[in-house]
TrEMBL record:
The keyword Transport does not apply. It comes from Crucibulum laeve. PANTHER family: CHROMOSOME 1, WHOLE GENOME SHOTGUN SEQUENCE, DUF6534 DOMAIN-CONTAINING PROTEIN. InterPro entries: DUF6534. The keyword Metal-binding does not apply. This is DUF6534 domain-containing protein. It comes from the Eukaryota. Keywords: Membrane, Transmembrane, Transmembrane helix.
Length: 318
């Protein structure tokens, strides 16, 4: 029951975030709009299916133990739809990590883990549909469920660690490049420091929270093989992935300081940035050259207030 409640609550948060994304980034890249749209459709379908199950179990089947033990449509709502959503979001992060770090190895590892856990989730859903009850599900579908949960947890941990490391390095590199100009205006410099800290904290918190729930799901599944405690975090996983994705997308919103009359919130999706060439010395002693994305931190005047913003190259390649 807690899993259903958390799922509904997270769906409400997702609806708000999708609405903000729609009005704030209507000119966003077509691929990202398609991604957000597909995820929202899947999540809406999942919520409808789970609402059906709640009614069949706790209303129509009130007092019926067989109804409580039946998987109903959970096999489709949680493993299959949730696994597809998680897989899509994790592959999106793999691409972003590759763009900002140029590390093919990490991106490939994340992509393979995402595909593995997504495939295992679909297999788990098919087995759950065939078995039809929770009592026998964990005993007869242990392998697919273990691969699904372990793969998802491992993938989320790698994503959280990689995003925290590479994104914080990218932002601080840009911050140091532009710090001389920003330091001329102490208020702007202070505001920029706060903005940089806020972005890094957002990335770390969202990634760590999703990874923690995935690990908790795996631990409960292994520790309590004859109980369904793990279904509570399992019901949340898909919605958590979709919400964290929208949180990152909507972080591009520009919020001006309220020092003068004017709109309290303005939506901007057009930025500038630079792609700089950096030279270093390789292990063979030869000079090497590679590209590094440096988001431009700049000050703008909006409605009489100062706004410090991060450039598009960070966000669009993030």
């Amino acid at each position: 029951l807690l899993g259903y409640l958390f799922n509904w609550g997270l769906y409400g948060a997702l609806v708000v975030q999708v609405y903000i994304y729609h009005i704030g980034f209507s000119n966003d890249r077509a691929a990202w709009k398609v991604l957000v749209g597909c995820i929202f459709v899947f999540e809406t379908a999942q919520t409808i299916l789970m609402t059906h199950d709640v009614f069949k179990t706790f209303a129509e089947g009130y007092g019926n133990l067989a109804a409580l033990n039946s998987t109903q449509l959970v096999w489709l709502a949680v493993p299959i739809l949730g696994g597809i959503v998680s897989c899509c979001v994790q592959i999106f992060y793999a691409y972003r990590i590759y763009v900002i770090s140029s590390s093919k190895v990490i991106a490939i590892v994340i992509t393979l883990l995402a595909l593995m856990q997504g495939s295992a989730a679909i297999a788990q859903g098919v087995e759950a549909a065939i078995i039809g009850n929770f009592t026998d599900l964990q005993a007869r579908a242990t392998m697919s469920c273990s691969v699904w949960l372990a793969g998802s947890a491992a993938c989320d941990v790698i994503i959280a660690a990689s995003m925290s490391y590479f994104v914080s390095g990218s932002i601080f590199a840009s911050f140091l490049v532009h710090s001389a100009d920003l330091s001329k205006n102490k208020s702007t410099f202070s505001h920029t420091q706060a903005l940089v800290t806020q972005i890094i904290r957002l990335i770390i918190e969202t990634g760590t929270f999703t990874a923690t729930i995935a690990i908790l799901d795996l631990v409960l599944f292994i520790a309590f093989p004859r109980n369904d405690y793990h279904t509570t975090p399992a019901f949340m996983l898909g919605k958590l992935h979709s919400n964290t994705l929208l949180v990152i997308f909507n972080s591009r919103l520009s919020v001006p300081s309220v020092r003068s009359p004017g709109p309290s919130l303005q939506f901007r999706s057009h930025y500038t940035a630079s792609r700089e060439q950096v030279r270093d010395i390789g292990e063979d002693g030869r000079q090497q050259k590679h590209a590094v994305f440096l988001p431009q931190i700049r000050q703008e005047s909006m409605s009489g207030g100062n706004t410090v913003r991060i450039g598009k190259e960070f966000w669009s390649n993030f």
